[in-house]
Design brief:
The protein folds into 3 domains: about 1-45 and about 65-105 and about 190-265, P-loop containing nucleotide triphosphate hydrolases (Rossmann fold, 3-Layer(aba) Sandwich); about 110-185, Orthogonal Bundle (DNA polymerase, domain 1); about 290-350, Ubiquitin-like (UB roll). The two termini are about 30 Å apart. The protein is α/β, with parallel strands linked by helices. α1 runs parallel beside α9 and α5 packs antiparallel against α6. β6, α8 and β7 (about 220-225) form a beta-alpha-beta unit. Helices cover about 45% and strands about 20% of the residues. Strands 2-4-1-5-6-7 form a 6-stranded mixed beta sheet, with helices on both faces. Strands 3-9-8-12-10-11 form a 6-stranded mixed beta sheet, with helices on both faces. The radius of gyration is 23 Å and the shape is flat. Bound molecules: guanosine-5'-triphosphate and magnesium ion (MG).
Length: about 350
């Protein structure tokens, strides 16, 4: 899963990226500052940690998210930046950084400006496609024409929404309609996490400022959260003991990186299940509503192909039972078939034939 970090120049994109766990300076030196830099960040999951402690396995493997930090001054407005938009189209979600650490910044202005930067390239794609549709409509055989006409109606809807400054994710689209436009990789279709980059002085006002942004930017699949970018970046460089102490003294709460990664998962509608063997306990991310057989395929294609059934127990029941022995004795381990819908926190033991 990849998330692209965008924002106005000097909003603190790189600072937030470093706070999440990247090391932009190091990577950027290698690419001469032209490419977006990539950070792979583990999702801290207390449930996984509890399972690892219980089973004392050699390895404990969390799920991860990749963040792309785009360099320099914004995107989309200059020719050389068109390449960034192309890269940005391939990510699963956006993280918009709004500067809120100095008097000169107004996060509400910033979100409006960035939003426009995202709307315009989308509008261009929709208009281009509409233009190409017209001659096709004239010459297409009747059967195909119906299909094209439906696409035209849909694209007209997208165009008028975008022209009014609405993101595509604010439209109520059917699954078929979403499928029809998936290939366009529209930027305003992507789930969006808005991060307010606050100064320490503003931290106490995080909720108030977030509400203000939310009131002008209330859309589906959009989350607004606050973060002390600079401070979190500095803390990220301390030892775990030092940083825990520091966080407590400053009443900073849960580490910013963990919050960002978790919000990213939630925004994408991902849930987690766990698998374990003698060597490792491992977390997996899947979309909500995934069937057991498809979840098995995430672990290994052989497991999906030869899927027989799966043993299921919620992680907290397994931990409370101190392992499978007692859990089985109390009948807590269920047997489920291929169509079982995997729940967040399930521990699966998948039985399959080779
Ligand atoms: N005081 C304070 N300064 C910050 C904070 N976040 C960023 N800065 C400063 O703002 C400047 C820009 O930060 P960057 O993180 O490089 O911003 P950016 O969005 O990556 O900038 P570009 O990539 O050049 O568009 C730097 O000098 C940072 O030190 C913050 O939370 N507090
Ligand atoms: Mg930067």
């Amino acid at each position: 899963m990849q998330i692209g970090i965008v924002g106005l120049p000097f909003a603190g994109k790189t600072t937030v990226f470093n706070a999440i766990g990247g090391n932009a300076t190091e990577q950027r030196q290698q690419t001469h500052g032209l490419e977006p830099t990539l950070a792979t960040v583990d999702l801290h999951d207390a449930r996984l940690e509890a399972l690892c402690t219980l089973f004392e396995t050699e390895q404990c493997i969390p799920t991860e998210v990749q963040y792309l930090d785009f360099p320099g001054a914004g995107f989309g407005r200059q020719e050389k930046e068109a390449a960034w938009v192309a890269t940005l189209r391939t990510v699963d979600a956006l993280l918009i950084v709004l500067g809120a650490f100095s008097e000169a910044q107004d996060p509400v202005d910033e979100i409006e400006s960035i939003h426009l930067d995202l709307v315009l390239p989308d509008l261009q794609i929709v208009e281009n496609r509409l233009q190409r549709l017209l001659p096709q409509l004239r010459t297409a055989p009747a059967a195909e024409r119906q299909h094209l006409e439906r696409e035209q109606i849909l694209l007209d809807r997208l165009r008028s929404a975008l022209e009014q400054g609405m993101p595509v994710r604010a439209l109520e689209l059917t699954a078929d309609e979403e499928q029809a436009i998936r290939g366009f990789q529209l930027l305003t279709m992507k789930p969006t996490l808005v991060v307010l980059n606050l100064s320490e002085a503003q931290w106490g006002r995080a909720t108030e400022i977030a509400d203000r942004v939310q009131s002008t930017y209330a859309h589906p699949r959009t989350t607004v959260m606050g973060l002390c970018g600079q401070l979190e970046m500095e803390i990220a460089q301390l030892s775990p003991e030092e940083s825990a102490l520091f966080r407590e003294e400053m009443s900073l709460g849960e580490p910013g990186a963990a919050r960002v990664v978790r919000e990213s998962h939630t925004l994408l509608g991902l849930i987690h299940f766990f698998t374990l063997n003698e060597k490792e306990v491992r977390a997996w991310a899947i979309p909500q509503g995934t069937r057991a057989q498809d979840a098995a395929g995430k672990v290994h294609t052989d497991m999906a192909r030869g899927f027989v059934r799966t043993e299921v127990i919620p992680w907290e029941q397994l931990v409370a039972s101190h392992g499978y022995g007692d859990a089985r004795k109390h009948g807590l381990v269920r047997q489920e078939g291929r169509d079982y819908v995997v729940q967040d926190g399930d521990v699966l033991y998948i039985l399959f034939t080779r």
